[in-house]
Design brief:
- The chain is an all-alpha fold.
- The chain has one domain.
- It has five helices and no strands.
- The longest helix has about 35 residues, at about 1-35.
- Keywords: Membrane, Transmembrane, Transmembrane helix.
């Protein structure tokens, strides 16, 4: 029993570290880019030059399916665990920052809900 508690704390701390690191790293890339190129450049992160190459299109399609699958799964988990506001926040994080921030954020909220 003590091992499980220690293991859960380790998971929560790890997920928090990944969440914060992704949030800082993604914003450290995006914010200076948008400051340099203006507010219109936000769309570059979703439909910009990345769509002009085959590898870029592949990466965007890949990410699109990750986003869809994750949020479908997370929606069911959020309903089951009664943490719908955290699911909604993860959707906002996905499109406001990135899926690399949203997934660890939701997993952290899920871990804390499971502990209750």
């Amino acid at each position: 029993m003590a091992y499980e508690g220690m293991n859960q704390k380790w998971r929560e701390r790890s997920l928090f570290a990944v969440f914060v690191t992704a949030l800082v790293t993604q914003n450290a890339i995006a914010i200076p880019y948008v400051q340099r190129n203006g507010p219109e450049s936000v769309k570059d992160f979703f439909v910009g030059d990345i769509m002009k190459t085959t590898p870029g299109r592949f990466a965007m399609v890949d990410l699109l399916f990750v986003v869809i699958a994750f949020h479908l799964w997370a929606f069911g988990e959020a309903r089951r665990l009664r943490i719908m506001p955290w699911w909604f926040a993860s959707v906002v994080l996905t499109f406001g920052v990135g899926i690399a921030t949203a997934i660890p954020f939701f997993f952290l909220a899920r871990e804390r809900a499971l502990r209750r």
